[in-house]
Amino acid sequence: MEESPLHQFELQNWVPISIGGLDISINKAVIFMWIVIAVAAALMVMAGSSRKLVPGKLQSLAEMMVDFIRSMILDTMGKEGMRFFPLIATLFLFILFSNLIGLIPGSYTVTSQIIVTAVFSFVVYGLSLVIGFMLHGVKFLGILVPPGTPGWLVPLMIPIEIISQVARPVSLAVRLFANMTAGHVMLAVLFSLTIGGGLLIGWLPFAFTVAIYGLEFGIAFIQAYIFSILTCVYLGDAFHLHGHEEHAH
Amino acid sequence: MAPPQDPLYAGLGQAVRIGTELLAALIVGGGLGWVTDTYLFGTTPWGLVIGLVFGLGAGMRNAYRSAQRWQSPPDDVNKQG
């Protein structure tokens, strides 16, 4: 009856599919990804369908969300960042809903798979590189030498900046994955202590389970927020190459 | 979407961010060094050592950057790395 707290993350292939040696089997994570997309899309479409001047509950929730994402983009990227509104909003909603749906007991947290978060973060980072090179050409490499670096430090700064650039998508992916995984492991451990402890002492870990569950709810929002605001920041960096920004002033 | 604005959660978010920033750069630096050692030049252990040192530097830099971004008002965000 003892179960590993990591057991919840294991995936079995439910519908094995293989095309040309490529394993695209359907497992729990895939199903839950579909559920997340369906729920997020259904909520937003439903919220947007009435378009009343005096919004109802659902509509005002959706408006709040859109406004929140919009101000996040304007704060970090400025006006030209609004081009990326669909991307950022999709990322934010997908991550938020998969975190929240993952909190329902018995369901699965898609974002606790590092491959999911890694694909997101590397796509975002790749996009920022493409935009940077498209807008600035070779000058974009200037991102490796921060403004105000003394000449003799340049050979030292370039490897450091290369590593710090490569670390961006890694930290983006690891942060979301680690937070979701750690939270669910913690909940699993505490809850198994509750079951094992019985009535006499079991209430203590149970109280912690409830408290951590509340905290996880906040973390679900925070992680979605952090992921999307850092996406904005990285894309914004590609827009406004900081060296040039400062020369302009 | 209140939680991110809540001071407790905003602080928590920052703490989590800066911690991972340090860790990720160390992993990348050490990883690059290790790959150089094992697969490219066979210079064990120097690639790993130098990679870790640079990784630490990069991690500090990233952590510093994100802390700096946190302090400044939103309008200034574009101007600093």
Oligomer: heterodimer
Spell the H/E element sequence of chain B.
HH
Q: In percent terms, what proportion of residues of chain B is strand?
A: under 5%
Number of domains of chain A: 1
The separation of the N and C termini of chain A measures 67 Å
Number of strands of chain B: 0
Tally of individual helices of chain B: 2
- Strand and helix order of chain A: EEEEHHHHHH
| Most extensive protein-chain contact, per-chain counts | A-B, 38 and 34 residues
Overall strand count of chain A? 4
Strand arrangement in the largest pleated sheet of chain A: 1-4
Uncertain spans of chain B: 73-81
Q: What structural class is derived from the secondary structure elements of chain A?
A: mainly alpha
Sketch the major β-sheet of chain B.
Answer: none
- Taken from the alpha-carbon principal axes, the silhouette of chain A is globular
User: Biggest sheet of chain A, in brief?
Assistant: 2 strands, antiparallel
- Roughly how many Å is the radius of gyration of chain A? 22 Å
Number of separate structural domains of chain B: 1
Name the poorly predicted regions of chain A: 243-249
* Amino- and carboxy-terminal Cα gap of chain B: 27 Å
Detailed description of the structure:
The complex is a heterodimer of chains A (249) and B (81). With 249 residues, chain A is mainly α. Chain A has one domain (7-248). Chain A is built from six helices and four strands. A two-stranded antiparallel sheet of chain A has the order 1-4. In chain A, a hairpin with a 2-residue loop joins strand 2 (18-19) and strand 3 (22-23). Mean pLDDT of chain A is 85; it is low at 243-249. Chain B is mainly α. Chain B has two helices and no strands. Chain B has helices spanning 7-41, 46-71. The longest helix of chain B has 35 residues, at 7-41. The A-B interface holds A 64-65, 68, 75-78, 146-147, 159-161, 163-164, 166-168, 170-171, 174-175, 178-179, 218-219, 221-222, 225-226, 230, 233, 236-237, 240, 242, 245-246, 249 and B 1, 3-4, 6, 9, 12-13, 16-17, 20-21, 23-25, 27-29, 32, 51, 54-55, 57-59, 61-62, 69, 74-75, 77-81.
